[in-house]
Specification:
This protein has 281 residues and is mainly α. The protein has eleven helices and four strands; from the N terminus they run αααααββααααβααβ. It has three domains: 48 residues; 148 residues, Orthogonal Bundle (Lysozyme), CATH 1.10.530; 50 residues, LysM domain (Membrane-bound Lytic Murein Transglycosylase D, Chain A).
């Protein structure tokens, strides 16, 4: 009798223990699933949304990365995508970006570009704190910007054009007016070569680069650039200054500088006051 009672009690205890284990186990699984799902999806969505407007640049690892190209056609294939993204974000025609890149960098094979990843011949200028190298251009041993990745050159050039007073009028042109941009870049002093506009237009029409402008315009995703406001300020001429050096310092063209100051020639005197434009902060 006593053995039977003990057996019943032991069996009952085991049943209660098993029942407790069955109730506890399932409660953990749903908690793990609800925590993981949002964390996996959110960053992907955020990255896609950002990429629609501004091209996501690669991380700067400190290493010098180069994209080897063997022809103009290969250059266009390699860089046409970022040219279109930069057009969406800054309003600069992709055709002009590609044509300038081909011309200024020798389709990526020029000596300066090979050493610096500088695809647009942008010089250091006042305020440049990045890496640099020297190269003979208008003058011997001029300072040019250096980038660790070709994409940084494309982005810096977009910022360069969109933030300088002398290029502001270009952004009032139609987005597919590559001829207006080509002539305007020369007028604003981007290059000293008188045939610079013709060279850009020839490249655009020969390789049908205007088709990339049409693609971006058709997408309807070009960001409208807010016009910058400028203020007039005075610069006092120092020893060694020229109209060219002053125009470079304040990012306005020599003709514009002469017109603003009613100058008939390029002669300057030490202590002479020159009116220049500066961006309103």
């Amino acid at each position: 009798m006593i053995r039977r009672i003990i057996t019943i009690l032991v069996f009952g205890f085991l049943m209660i223990a098993c029942g407790t284990k069955k109730r506890v186990a399932p409660s953990k699984k749903p908690i793990e699933r609800t925590v993981e799902k949002p964390a996996e999806k959110a960053p992907e969505k955020e990255q896609r949304e950002q990429g629609n407007v501004l091209y996501p640049l690669p991380e700067d690892t400190g290493k010098f990365v180069q994209f080897p190209v063997n022809s103009v056609e290969e250059y266009i294939t390699t860089f046409s995508e970022i040219a279109r993204f930069e057009m969406k974000a800054y309003g600069i025609p992709a055709s002009i970006t590609l044509a300038q890149g081909i011309l200024e960098s020798g389709a990526g094979r020029g000596n300066l570009t090979q050493r610096t990843n500088n695809h647009f011949g942008i010089k250091c200028h006042t305020g440049w704190n990045g890496d640099y190298d020297f190269h003979d251009d208008d003058e011997k041993g001029e300072c040019f910007r250096k980038y660790n990745h070709p994409m940084y050159s494309f982005r810096d050039r977009s910022i360069f054009l969109s933030s300088r007073a002398r290029y502001a009028f270009l952004f009032n042109l139609d987005h597919d007016d590559y001829k207006g941009w080509a002539k305007g870049l020369r007028q604003a002093g981007y290059a000293t070569d008188r045939k610079y506009p013709e060279k850009l237009i020839s490249l655009i029409e020969r390789y049908e680069l205007y088709k990339y402008d049409k693609e971006v315009i058709k997408s309807g995703r070009i960001v409208k650039k807010e016009p910058q406001e400028y203020r007039l300020t005075t610069y006092v001429v120092q020893k060694g200054d020229t109209l060219y050096s002053i125009s470079r310092r304040y990012f306005i063209s020599v003709p514009e500088l002469m017109e603003m100051n009613n100058l008939k020639n390029s002669n300057l005197a030490v202590g002479q006051k020159i009116t220049v434009k500066a961006v309103k902060k």
